[in-house]
């Protein structure tokens, strides 16, 4: 069984992936998680910023764990695409990536040093490094692995954004085929 604190972090991540960080209020997280009203500032003395940072870390850990389980670059790609495809369909195209949601909200020049933005950047760096390592393990040269990792992350995240806007998984399917071809050429 999860604790109220863990439920709040998971709920915040789920709400961010659907709404973004700015519209996700502590009251919404409390309601979604079923946590007692007074628990927010008990568990998160740093307030909403601390909760959002931990939600981004949680989301980052979820994807990182999925990436770590892949036994090949192709399996890694297939798993990422399948996970986002399922998430989009199950949420009626409301749920994207909470890390992207935070990154997209980076347009506020007064918030350029935001700890939430820093957490999003750290998640992207972590995922990219994991993909580079997986590609390297599959025999891809270091410089090509770095390029392919960035291509994979940016293509998938971009396709998720477009799929949400168009309410169609076709962008994911298209980039899946193209990225599979790139991986096949790089690993053979």
Describe the structure.
- The protein contains 9 helices and no strands.
- The protein is mainly alpha-helical.
- It has a single domain (4-187), classed as Tetracycline Repressor, domain 2 (Orthogonal Bundle), CATH 1.10.357.
- The longest helix has 25 residues, at 142-166.
- The model has no long low-confidence stretch (mean pLDDT 92).
Please give the radius of gyration in angstroms. 17 Å
- Beta-strand content estimate: under 5%
pLDDT < 50 stretches: none
Helix-strand pattern, N to C?
A: HHHHHHHHH
Helical residues, percent:
over 70%
Give me the number of helical elements.
Answer: 9
- CATH class term: Mainly Alpha
- Rough outline: elongated
Q: What is the CATH superfamily classification?
A: Tetracycline Repressor, domain 2
* Gap from first CA to last CA: 45 Å
Helix/strand/pairing category = mainly alpha
Q: How many domains, in number, for the residues?
A: 1
Largest sheet: none
Report the count of strand segments.
0
For the record, the CATH architecture stands as Orthogonal Bundle
Domain HTH tetR-type: 11-52
Domain Transcriptional regulator LmrA/YxaF-like C-terminal: 75-178
Keywords: DNA-binding, Transcription, Transcription regulation
Organism: Mycobacterium dioxanotrophicus
Question: Could you provide a short overview of the structure?
Answer:
This is TetR family transcriptional regulator. It is built from 9 helices and no strands.
Which characteristics define this entry?
76% helix; mainly alpha; Homeodomain-like_sf; Tetracycline Repressor, domain 2; Tet_transcr_reg_TetR-rel_C_sf; transcription regulation
């Amino acid at each position: 069984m999860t604790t109220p604190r863990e439920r709040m972090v998971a709920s915040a991540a789920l709400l961010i992936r659907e709404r973004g960080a700015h519209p996700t209020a502590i009251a919404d997280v409390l309601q979604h998680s079923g946590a007692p009203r007074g628990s927010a500032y008990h568990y998160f003395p740093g307030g909403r910023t601390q909760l959002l940072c931990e939600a981004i870390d949680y989301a980052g850990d979820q994807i990182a764990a999925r990436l770590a389980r892949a036994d090949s670059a192709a399996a890694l790609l297939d798993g990422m695409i399948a996970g986002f495809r399922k998430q989009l369909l199950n949420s009626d195209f409301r749920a994207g990536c909470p890390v992207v949601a935070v990154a997209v909200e980076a347009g506020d020049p007064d918030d350029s040093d935001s700890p939430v933005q820093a957490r999003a950047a750290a998640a992207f760096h972590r995922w990219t490094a994991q993909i580079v390592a997986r590609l390297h393990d599959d025999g891809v040269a270091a410089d090509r692995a770095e390029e392919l990792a960035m291509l994979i992350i940016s293509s998938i995240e971009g396709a998720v954004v477009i799929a949400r806007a168009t309410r169609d998984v076709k962008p994911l399917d298209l980039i899946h085929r193209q990225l599979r071809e790139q991986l096949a050429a790089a690993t053979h």
